[in-house]
Design a protein that fits this description.
The complex is a heterodimer of chains A (348) and B (336). Chain A is built from nine helices and twelve strands. Chain A is an alpha/beta fold and 348 residues long. Chain A is globular. Classes of the chains: A alpha/beta (348), B alpha/beta (336).
Chain lengths: 348, 336
């Protein structure tokens, strides 16, 4: 049983498109007039995962769990504190800005807020074409053709290339963001809450578009979101994060059918289901709030809210291990083999 | 007694008079809520669900907004006929409201205890001391740990979920007959949302309060509301019991909404690449420039010339199931 990268595939064969090992991102906290470092925010505290070609990995968790920071750090928009990021088997962790340039073409990002992420002084056409300019790709004429093509591909009329961001609705702005991310024909797109600012009817349009593009272009996605239903819909595999760590990861069906981590179980039962009668299902309601990532609890980060926590959970950090085939979990309940259903243990 | 209508809105029209024209935010909406019941009001941004609620408490900023027509009946009176001071006796006392973002609705300079007791002093005439003790009791009822200590906390010292609990404590401190909850859990994480909704149910059972639950989240509605109103572009397009609405929706917009959200159970068991969500094409029309006929027709797959010419009346198709669509009979037949 290995404790390295959680993935169905073995280490053999071609390297995965993206592999992240023990990634950490800590933010120092400063205090006083000499800006003394007084503490750390342990935003991402050792996460490992792989994404294969054409695959979607969903990264789900509640606010402050570090999912967005993880997405940004692996694109090196933030410098990792520790760990390793590999693209097509090549280590990019320590590359500088210039060295990163060719890799940036392969990895793009879509942001949550289509209002804040577009430059208001640039026309939509300029926004979408800017990556081509930065990477000095194509002549101006070819660039224009490419932008026109991208507009049509994401379902925007070509006349709109001359319009400015404020003239678009939220859904259209998100389409501009997607077109821009596609401009360099990337292999991997990290999308950070791409639909959570949109109305439900528009949300469906964007989700369908992302899935069509994936089929057509063979894209891989890291889909970062808090909405478990959306994540389950779009992903092949799902990783659940809590306070900077991945607590469980497996294919989406197993995650739903046999959640092994108490946090996943609670998260699944907290998602409201739009079906009559859903209110009568048995549910686990967690008590309390997520602790601060500045002072995460010792042992298992989740033990303060876990209905099944026992003595070991309070001082010993559980490791992410493969408990069932392709199903990774970090929880002491399964130390001596998988125990299902999850339940409180008699204190030893 | 439950089953007794406590608040009734009749043909409410709230319009905003802006330089860009008249925005018909609420355009002839009627609904009623009974004691002890939770009425869900759903719709997307700009459908008028929140403006309707603000109109009930006469909190719409004027200018530019004005209630141009309709009646709001509560305890035998039309709230629209009351004087401002009579209205003040109702707000926060008989009808109270909680909002999406508790941080912007709480006063950052006052301790939560002061804020809760303020309403109690104002409406129930208790002394400051008594009101403060009652504030502690209210915090205990909304399950805030260590209420004796938390009562001295300022809003910024509390988490989002705790702030929403404080809002609920404040809203319920005077034992209102109606609680209007406008997206009460939208800003919260799901595990905290579950706690807050659970708390609201528990308090409703105990106090018999009628709740108007305004939300965009159909899951929240399915799990909490007894009856549901669906709004689109300032009007009510469908009204039904939760069971009817989710099991046999009759308006194409409701059907579209239900098809456009991923269902956790279905999503987990299907290869998503093969399952597309239903899209509602286009977007919500501008309320200052609504299309002729049915306002949903431009986005509707069932629309015919009749739909584009005349707005369909709201018709009762089954007991308690009202739909405003020319094709509702056919659509209901198809879905049941």
């Amino acid at each position: 049983m290995s404790v390295q990268s959680p993935d169905r595939r073995s280490g053999k064969g071609p390297a995965p498109l993206l592999e992240v090992q023990g990634l950490k991102k800590h933010f120092p906290l400063y205090k006083g007039i000499f800006s003394r470092v007084s503490g750390q925010v342990y935003a991402v505290d050792g996460v490992s995962f792989r994404i294969g070609r054409g695959e979607t990995l969903g990264l789900v968790g509640e606010s402050g769990c570090g999912k967005s920071t993880a997405g940004r750090t692996l694109l090196k928009l933030l410098e990792p504190t520790e760990g390793k990021i590999m693209v097509n088997g090549e280590d990019i962790t320590d590359l500088d800005t210039a060295q990163m340039l060719p890799y940036r073409r392969q990895m793009q990002m879509i942001y949550q807020d289509p209002y804040a992420s577009l430059n208001p002084r640039m026309s939509a056409g300029e926004i979408v074409g800017e990556p081509l300019t930065i990477h000095r790709i194509a002549t101006p004429k070819e660039r224009r053709e490419r932008v026109t093509h991208l507009f049509e591909r994401v379902g925007l009329r070509r006349e709109l290339m001359e319009s400015y961001p404020h003239e678009f609705s939220g859904g259209q702005r998100q389409r501009i963001g997607i077109a821009r991310a596609l401009a360099l024909s990337p292999e991997l797109i990290v999308s950070d809450e791409p639909v959570s600012a949109l109305d439900v009817s528009i949300q469906a349009q964007i989700i369908n578009l992302l899935m069509d593009l994936q089929d057509e272009l063979g894209l891989s996605y890291l889909f970062v979101a808090h909405d478990l239903a959306v994540v389950e819909h779009i992903s092949d595999r799902v990783a659940v994060m809590y306070l900077g760590r991945i607590v469980e990861t497996t294919d989406k069906t197993s995650l739903f059918e046999t959640p092994l981590h108490p946090y996943t179980e609670a998260l699944l039962s907290a998602v409201p289901i739009p079906k009559y009668g859903a209110r009568d299902r048995k549910r686990v309601i967690l008590t309390g709030d997520v602790p601060s990532p500045i002072k995460p609890p010792p042992g298992c980060h989740f033990h303060t809210r876990c209905p099944y926590a026992f003595a070991r959970c309070r001082h010993e950090v559980p490791v992410l291990r493969q408990a069932l085939s392709g199903h990774w979990v970090s929880c002491h309940l399964h130390d001596d083999g998988v125990t299902l259903p999850l339940a409180k243990r008699p204190e030893a | 007694m439950p089953d007794e209508t406590i608040l009734e809105i009749e043909n409410l029209k709230t319009h905003f008079f802006t330089t860009g024209g008249v925005v018909r935010a609420v355009d002839g909406v009627s609904y009623a809520v009974r004691s002890g019941e939770t009425l869900g009001v759903v719709g997307e941004s700009g459908c008028g669900k929140s403006v309707t609620a603000l109109s009930i408490l006469r909190l719409v900023a004027s200018p530019p907004g004005r209630i141009v027509e309709g009646a709001i009946r509560f305890a035998g009176a039309n709230l629209l006929d009351l004087t401002e001071s009579e209205m003040e006796a109702i707000r926060g006392n008989e009808i109270s409201m909680i909002f999406q973002e508790p941080m912007t609705s709480l006063n950052p300079l006052m301790t939560v205890g002061r804020q809760i007791s303020e309403a109690i002093v104002l409406h129930q005439g208790l002394s400051r001391r008594e009101a403060f003790d009652q504030a502690v009791e209210m915090l205990r009822r909304v399950h805030i740990p260590e209420p004796e200590r938390r009562v001295h906390a300022y809003p910024h010292q509390l988490s989002g979920g705790m702030r929403q609990r404080v809002m609920i404590a404040m809203a319920l401190s005077c034992g209102p007959k109606v609680l209007i909850a406008d997206e009460p859990t939208t800003a919260l994480d799901v595990t905290i949302q579950a706690q807050i909704l659970d708390l609201m149910r528990e308090l409703q059972e105990r106090l018999g309060t009628a709740i108007i639950l305004i939300t965009h989240d159909l899951g929240v509605v399915a799990e909490n509301a007894d009856r549901v109103i669906v709004m689109y572009a300032g009007r009510k397009v469908e009204e039904a019991s939760s069971k009817d609405l989710f099991e046999s929706p009759g308006h194409p917009y409701t059907m579209g909404l239900l098809g456009s959200i991923p269902n956790l159970e279905v999503a987990a068991h299907t290869n998503s690449r093969r399952v597309r969500l239903t899209e509602i094409k286009g977007m919500v029309p501008s309320l200052a420039d609504l299309p002729y006929g049915c306002t949903f027709a431009p986005r509707c797959g069932f629309a015919t010339d009749k739909c584009r010419a005349d707005y369909p009346p709201l018709v009762q198709h089954r007991p308690g199931h009202w739909i405003s669509c020319w094709h509702a009979d056919r659509l209901l037949g198809g879905s049941s």
